[in-house]
Structures are given as C-alpha cells and as structure tokens.
Specification:
By secondary structure, the protein is mainly alpha-helical. The chain folds into 2 domains: about 1-35, no CATH class; about 40-70. It has 4 helices and no strands. The protein is elongated and about 60 Å long.
C-alpha cells in the first residue's frame, strides 16, 4: 500500500526523477498507483480472475475448432 506522499510523488514526479523519466517515456503512472494501492491478496485475486478468463477463452477456441469441419 502507498502512503499519500508516495502516491503524490508518482502522480506529480519531481523534475529529473526516475518517475518523471518513466512518465515522459510514456508509462502511465496512474496504473502503477492503482496497482500499488491494492493489497497483495487483492492483486492475487485479480491475477487469478485474469487466468480464469484466459482459460475460458482457450476452451472456447478449442470448442470452436472442434465444431468447424475441416
């Protein structure tokens, strides 16, 4: 979890900082802040949900291929 100071640092990075260079490079630091505000358990649950969605898509593709005549 981030402190308010850490969040502010990432959202408005000081000149010359690594965070500013990352922002200038195109990295969306708001996404970093969003992720870091979650607990490790929340991040794992989100990851598990993502894995389950991928598995569902793969199964859908398998079923689709089985139903399509060659």
């Amino acid at each position: 979890m981030l402190t308010r100071e850490q969040e502010e640092y990432l959202l408005t990075p000081p000149p010359g900082s690594a965070a500013e260079r990352a922002k200038e490079f195109g990295i969306d630091l708001t996404l970093t802040v969003d992720r870091l505000q979650r607990t490790p358990e929340q991040r794992l649950m989100e990851l598990q949900s993502f894995v389950e969605q991928i598995e569902e898509m793969r199964e859908s593709v398998r079923r689709s291929r089985q139903q399509t005549p060659s």
